[in-house]
Design brief:
Length: 290
């Protein structure tokens, strides 16, 4: 059989599979394409999920649809079928332009394998229609991607006090008290004055946090925080009422809550950060029981 397969340019394993197939075998992909009612149901489910999230592509939209389907006992939709249905219905996003290669590539790795090993932080600004600017800062876990704590206010500039308040809240949220900590947490940030201030470093040491700053002019070294800012502005800020600073501040708690509880993250198997943390805790309990 090998010489024949070589001449035909086909794999022997594929020929063996063809010989084993029954006479009534039908490609499941053909059956899927011949199911217009099922496709219509999927398209309706996608529209229901992305109405408030128009920036979600087929991967994230599919993750949300499959979460709902699993709750009602339906089988998940394959991502290839999801892409085909959304393409046929004109629900796909336009392809993003190719990013330019950075002149300072970052060869390191920000992500870690366990929660509470490294946190990262960055600031952001949201311009309002009335000329006001909302400034914010956040603390993100580099494993489970949860936004542990954040602060926002109307006005430009990033003072040190909100950063220090955010650090205290993050420690309380993850450890309860400093005495309950079992590891030293790295705190990765850029070289902004609020992060490098002596008061911030002193508080970090008191809380059991090790400040780590990126090299100058190297935002790639804090890529996880930079990526969150881009995601947050694209998926949440873009659809906000930005008529005033007060309007934006009123919407931020819901946006951060949605990111933590609902937003599918590719690095987490398209689970949300809190779904991922819940799954990790369940696995730890099962392993401990065994």
């Amino acid at each position: 059989m090998k010489p024949v397969c070589v001449v035909l340019g086909v794999a022997r394993s594929h020929v063996v599979d063809l010989l084993k197939r029954p006479a009534d075998w039908v490609d499941a992909r053909v059956l899927a394409k011949a199911d217009p009612i099922g496709d219509a149901m999927i398209a309706d489910a996608v529209r229901a999920e992305i109405t408030a999230l128009p920036t979600y592509g087929y991967r994230r939209a599919g993750a949300l649809v499959n979460r709902t389907r699993s709750l009602i006992g339906l089988r998940p939709v394959n991502h290839k079928r999801m892409y085909r249905v959304m393409k046929e219905q004109g629900l796909l996003l336009p392809k993003s332009p190719k990013r330019r290669d950075s002149g300072r590539p970052h060869a390191g790795k920000v992500a870690v394998e366990e929660s509470n090993r490294r946190w990262c932080s960055d600031g952001f600004e949201i311009a309002c229609e009335n000329g006001e600017v909302v400034t914010g800062v956040f603390m993100k876990d580099c494993c489970d991607r949860e936004i542990i704590s954040w602060r926002a206010w109307t006005g430009r500039g990033l003072p040190g006090e909100p950063v220090r308040d955010m650090m205290i809240e993050a420690v309380e949220a993850r450890f309860g008290t400093a005495d309950e900590r079992v590891v030293m947490v790295e705190f990765l940030s850029d070289n902004g004055g609020a992060f490098r201030a002596n008061e911030t470093h002193a508080l970090a040491r008191a809380l059991g946090i090790k400040p780590v700053h990126t090299p100058v002019n190297s935002p790639q070294s804090n890529g996880m925080a930079e990526s969150f800012v881009n995601t947050f502005k694209r998926d949440y800020v873009g659809s906000m009422d930005r008529s005033s600073g007060a309007a934006v501040l009123a919407q931020l708690p819901g946006a951060f809550r949605h990111f933590n509880e609902v937003h599918p993250h590719s690095a987490l198997g398209y689970k949300s950060p809190r779904m991922f943390r819940k799954e990790r805790r369940r696995q730890a309990l099962e392993n401990g029981a065994n």
